[in-house]
Specification:
This protein is of the alpha+beta class. It has a domain at 12-97 and 343-365. The protein is built from 17 helices and 19 strands. Strands 7, 8, 9, 11, 15, 16, 18 and 19 form an 8-stranded mixed sheet that branches. A hairpin with a 2-residue loop joins β12 (341-349) and β13 (352-361). It is globular and about 65 Å long.
């Protein structure tokens, strides 16, 4: 773990929303190979914890890193990499680092639209949220409704969303509306430990705890910022939508734990020196790195399946409360985006196409219309980007731009970003008081735990409006609309 710095390093202003720590900032070994670049307004920059600058500078020292180590405006201190960190490594000379992906592999966002308006839902909001709370298990130790055999669990690791749809837990169109069609190729269950399998098997289809949530939201007329894009994405005034934030649960956590433990003692043998042992990594072409990549893909596919099963239960819940089929309520998935992943992608470096190992930790892919990875459905808009906020402040739908490819390797923020640790939030806020306050503001919350509810108070997070505006000003992603919370299921 790094020593928490007491001051910020000298910064060079690149633009009003982009700053750099020079690669000459620290001359001790290993040296920074590239600058460390931070996207933020002056206000966000001034509020960032100093550990963010230290951690992203440490990332800039890692072998094979290209162009710059980057931080998104929602960045805060994390394990090894800051949350909100983006780094690209050459496939031949670079590395892969579990700390650059995170413990909750493919923690991500899923956005579902409906044809219902706030007038339709408001009279039934409380029974709706209570029904969703019953159908979607939340909290530490929650167990899912699907009981997996050993072979089925392996199939989920490989096929992700496709396994769910094949087994009746979704619609065929859900696949094309999910990043990587909900199943990243190259997953290999044989590279996953038995301990990880045991942790993951009972948790599929559960929300978990921490900052994971299921939220009923409304699009107010004044919060549609681009009517043309909103229409193409199926958004209209006073519409009710549902947003889900969760990942691979204990399954992904154990896979990260297993491979950090394997990589750390071998770095000397590989000739790798890092400034922080939390940056444990392996040369990308080694067997160990490829094994981790295959296991990480299993966790990513598990997370896609996890969110797909939750979507299935959400559709069931709405049908129970409103007495209509999900199809008749227009409950289409708009998109599912991943953060906390590593992917091999082609990007231009010094004007040439290069294969890179893209690490996005607490950062979202935001490809523009020109990228072939964007589903045909969104080739005229750019990839949807779902940005989760705190339970009190709302969330955003954005789209990626072609300019993002050059600026950030096609990456943007994933949320509002914490300003307080979970422990500090618990000391500062009381869950019961927060629940009452939110109720007074028209937000009904059904939570498993009051202390964990306190962790997610709006005051523990940055201003999501400023975070989203930063990346729009940078030319990386464009705002489409903002969603206001009205009902929340919280672990």
């Amino acid at each position: 773990m790094i020593k928490i710095p007491t001051e910020r390093p000298p910064l060079k202003k690149i633009s009003d929303v982009c700053w750099e720590v020079s690669q000459n900032y620290k001359r001790d070994e290993p040296k920074m190979q590239v600058p460390a670049r931070i996207f933020a307004t002056q206000k966000l920059l001034d509020s960032m914890d100093f550990a963010v600058f230290e951690q992203i500078s440490n990332v800039a020292c890692m072998p094979g890193i290209q162009k710059a180590a980057m931080c998104m405006p929602d960045a805060h201190w994390g394990y090894g990499f800051p949350v909100g960190g983006v780094a690209a490594f050459d496939v031949d000379d670079g590395i892969i680092s579990p700390g650059g992906i995170g413990y909750d592999i493919n923690c991500g966002m899923r956005l579902i639209k409906t044809d219902l308006t706030w007038d339709d839902v408001k009279p039934k909001l409380r029974p709706l949220v209570d029904t969703l709370f019953k159908l979607v298990p939340a909290g530490v130790g929650a167990r899912g409704f699907v009981k997996l055999t050993q072979q089925q669990h392996k199939d989920v690791m490989v096929d992700g969303t496709k396994w769910c749809v094949k087994n009746g837990y979704g619609w065929e169109e859900d696949i094309s509306r999910t990043e990587d069609e909900g199943a990243i190729e190259g997953a290999d269950p044989s590279k996953v430990s038995e301990k990880a399998v045991k942790r993951g098997s009972p948790e599929l289809g559960t929300l978990g705890s921490g900052n994971h949530y299921l939220e009923v939201q409304v699009v107010k007329p004044e919060n549609i910022f681009n009517e043309k894009l909103a229409k193409k994405l199926g958004i209209f005034e006073n519409q009710v939508c549902i947003m889900v934030h969760c990942g691979s649960r204990g399954f992904g956590h154990q896979i990260c734990t297993d491979y950090v433990s394997e990589f750390r003692p071998k770095m000397a043998e590989w000739g790798i020196k890092v400034r922080d042992q939390e940056l444990a990594c392996a040369p990308f072409r080694t067997k160990e790195a490829q094994n981790y990549l295959a296991a990480m893909r299993c966790a990513a596919n598990y997370a896609f399946a996890n969110r797909q099963l939750i979507l299935h239960r959400i559709r069931e819940g709405f049908s129970q409360v409103f007495g209509l089929d999900a199809e008749k309520m227009g409950m289409q998935l708009i998109y599912d985006v991943a953060h906390n992943t590593a992917k091999v992608e082609k990007h231009k470096v010094d004007g040439k196409d290069q294969e890179l190992v893209m690490h996005r930790k607490g950062a979202t892919r935001c490809f523009g219309p020109a990228r072939k990875e964007v589903p045909k459905l969104y080739r005229s808009t750019g990839q949807p980007v779902i940005v989760g906020g705190s339970m009190e402040t709302g969330s955003f739908l954005c789209v990626g731009t072609d300019e993002a490819d050059e600026l950030t390797f096609g990456s943007t923020m994933h949320g509002s970003g914490r300003t307080m640790s979970r422990a500090q939030a618990k000391r500062t806020f009381r869950g019961t008081d927060l629940q009452k306050k939110m109720q007074e503001h028209g937000i009904y919350v059904h939570a498993v735990s009051m202390p964990e509810l306190a962790e997610e108070a709006g005051g523990a997070y940055k201003d999501i409006n400023e975070v989203v505006d930063t990346m729009e000003q940078a030319g990386v992603s464009k705002k489409v609309c903002r969603f206001l919370p009205v009902g929340n299921v919280k672990g």
